[in-house]
Amino acid sequence: MAKKRKSEQEPQQKRQALDEEDLIVSRKRTRQPKQHQREEKMINSNLSSKIIKEALNQQKEIQQEAENETLFVAVPPGTLDGPEDDDDDDVDGFDGFSETLSQYDGGNQEIDEEDERVLAAFMSKDGAPQQTLADLIIQRIKEKDAEVGSEARPLPKLDSAVIDLYRGVGKLLSRYTVGKIPKPFKHIPSMQPWEDVLYLTEPEKWSANAMFQATKIFSSNLCAKKAQRFYSLVLLPRVREDIQKNKRLHFALYQSLKKALYKPAAFFKGILIPLCQSGTCSLREAVIVGSVIQKVSIPFLHSSAALMKIAELEYCGTTSYFIKLFLDKKYALPYRVLDAVMAHFMRFLEDTRMMPVIWHLSLLSFVQRYKNELTKEDKDNLDNLIQHQKHHLVTPEIRRELKNSRNRGEKEDDLMSMSSPITVINKTIEEDRWDFPEVPMEED
């Protein structure tokens, strides 16, 4: 009987298994077909015209790239010395500033016209024009060869193939927006006559984005001394020209200044110091360049050297603005730098001119940050100075800061001994915590 029951159960189990398979197959069939299994729909006429137009644009770009490649084929062997790097670095991958453009505020600084007019009175009237790379190369060529004196833009003595090559590179950089930089341009920092080759590309005609890419390449591949020459002869004239022309600075040029500051010594010697030495630095230029210094972290030794050098320069109205910027960074400045800044302010003890507000504010910042590092003699000299150079709002604050400070070398306890009796009593109560005898409570 048990065997019969077992034989009857086996067909039933097989039927159940077949029913389950049919159910699974039916469920699979009810699913929606995949994308590639669907029937292709007809494309709209508007969409098809857009596709054809995009295909034509891509074909034009391919033809232009082929023409550019033919331009760079005839490079003589050994002309471009340098490492063959085929990797796509951050320079090749540049695709614009769409992410950081919204955070840009360096070009739209509000400038008070009254302050600008007052500071213009302290500018040098006979300031020499800014020297560019083209001026330097033309002067050098004319000194060596008197026959080219009549030519407006003489060419350096280089191979004709190299001249044609880098002239083509210059034409590309004049209309560059995004994308890859030509490889021959990346080899310029490793070449011996790099200034002559760079002159062939006509840097004064580069686009703003090309200037940013060039700054990245030269700041990372040149030593500090050569990078300084690139900053002073190429980047600084372009930045000043753009500010004077548009009353603001292009975002790519502003990013170029920030990238240049990654070599602080070259930045200060190639941009900041020449800008102050020119005697023609406007308030707008000082505010824009100063905003870069304010935002980027700079090693204090480089900042100390720059502050000391600016303090020793001939005074220009915007010099006080840069001094205030460095003082507000709150560095632990060496005594030598503090003495130089002190000597800078004391030069105006006998000055009969009415100093601008930024001068008084820079003096206030100096006293606020470093009042405890000044000697008693320095404070007496500053007291005489503020009696001669006064501002109805700033001078009382300077006097108050000098009064409530200790001298160089003194400790904080020495300052407390000179404080008022009430302050001394309060300090004694907090430190000693006098114990008063307990008074017993009377029981009811």
UniProtKB/TrEMBL annotation:
Residues 26-35 have a biased composition (Basic residues). It comes from the Eukaryota. Residues 1-46 are annotated as: Disordered. Pfam families: Bystin. GO terms for molecular function: snoRNA binding. Residues 7-18 have a biased composition (Basic and acidic residues). Transmembrane segments: none annotated. One of its GO terms (cellular component) is cytoplasm. One of its GO terms (biological process) is rRNA processing. PANTHER family: BYSTIN. Belongs to the bystin family. This is Bystin. It comes from Acorus gramineus (Dwarf sweet flag).
